[in-house]
Amino acid sequence: MPFLSALPSLLMLCLLTLGNAWAAAPAAKPNAAPSEPTWPQVISSAKSKLTVYQPQLDSWDGYTLNARAAVEATAADGKSTYGIVQFSAHTLVDKATRWVALDQYNIIKADFPADAKQADTWLAILKKDAESRKKTISLDQLEAAVGVLNAEQKADSAPLENTPPTIISSDRPAILVYIDGEAAYRSVEGTELQRVINTRPLLLKDAQGRHYLHVFDGWMVADQLAGDYTRLAAPPASLEKAKQAAIKSRQVDLLTGQSDPKDKIPSLAKPPQPKIFLATTPTELLVTDGAAQWQPIQGTSLLYVSNTTGHIFKEIGDQNSYVLISGRWFRASDMSGPWTFVPADKLPADFANIPDDSAKENVKASVAGTPQAQEAAIAAAIPQTSAINKSAVKMTTPQFDGEPQLKAISNTPLQYVINSATPIIRVGNDSWWAVENGIWFSATSLNGPWSVATSVPAVIYSIPPSSPMHYLTYVKVYESSGDTVVVGYTPGYQGSTLDPATGVVVYGTGYPYTPWVGSVWYGPPVTYGFGVAIRYTPWTGWTFGFGFGWSWGGNTVAMGWGWGAYP
After folding, report:
1. What would the pLDDT profile of 467-517 be if each residue is shown by its tens digit?
2. Given the DSSP bridges, would you call strands 166-170 and 283-287 parallel, antiparallel or unpaired?
3. Which residues make beta-bridge pairs with 213?
4. The whole model's pTM is what?
5. Whole-Å CA distances, 215 to 130, 230, 231, 391
6. What is the rounded distance in angstroms from the CA atom of residue 194 to the CA atom of residue 215?
């Protein structure tokens, strides 16, 4: 099987020795509670350090168990290489004690795509270490894991949505203001202004229909929503009052143009003033610093635009332009479009041949079959875990915009609450589930009381990508014993999605979800609208440019669903 061609759904199989995964003998007592996450495991040798992350179940037929684990190999110089170790074992089930012993444990192989020279050495270290490990699994946990795996496989069989967004370009400084659907206006208390509530930027309208947008250190104004925005030299006092109210709500991005809060805020009084583009449907903005400047990529037939933070290419052979947006490739005969989606495994061959010392090397994480893409897929499978005391962790009481309203999740028996910022799933009349800060909570009633969940119904993991609740399927309960619950999530919770068709990590599902807009705005996860500077590496995750393009740089902090169009 080609490397990662059938990467399984992300399911941690905690190989617990009654509380410790690969812990050395003797095994812990059955009622012992883990004091901290037992993963990852660190194995050190003279020249390398191997960090083994939580194993993931591939299959279990009642006797033979197959699983795999992500491994990070760190050399003496600090360089890390990601790989996957595959292993199998025979299971000996003791139904009386509800525990399963692993017999004939065998590491099958290790794949380290970026450093094959060291793979044999690393595999030998892992095999030697495994000889001294006790391996026992809770039968209840294993049976639950199989149920979740089956549900995940159903969800993963559903395709992602790759319809191109609207792609606009500008050769002068520009900002994209993405509105989550048609503009929804609500009054700003104490003023005659109304605010567009379903967007992160601060966008206001006065009684005459003029629109005001906060940018940098001031305001821009247009006669209508989609008009030509220019600098407002003397802002009325009501704008400052509305600004302070919006800041207090903690739901606005003032578009200060700062990559870091310590940076100096650009001044609107100094040219150039940015051009404002508004969009109410999935849209991306390409910004270049003047006319596009094309540079060749050595050893290939590719050109790239050097005066942009985005990823814009031209292939000499077919003369087409290619852009990379949210991990997806789109192609057009010229920059004005129309654009079509290009699968990551159908790109011209020279994209995989971009030299590793090229300024555009990082796009290879989005080119199928490259070591960078393989490592990105492995990194996207590594969960972030934490051991919590369930008696000490409380969920914020959910708030609803009016009476709670439910909506069915297609191809499942589930429903979710559409008019709450808290993602809440209804499994049954007395079975309610919610996620906050990567932790599952459960209740027998929508009104609570809510408590930390010690397990999650397998059916939840069948939620397809077409549902705005799909991102919850990346949040897991990995182990529970006594008052301690090991919880966590893989990067899909924050937007990273593995395209099952190509094995390449993309950002978001691509589906445009319908937001809730009532007296308040509850926005679902979005894929586009961040600015074309979005990029992915296994080391920093996703970074975004927010449409500021070349002139004001891009953000270098990996962020989750809390930014962009989401409030």
Report:
1. 999 999 999 998 888 899 989 898 889 888 899 899 999 999 999 999 999
2. parallel
3. 203, 220
4. 0.82
5. 58, 11, 9, 45
6. 18
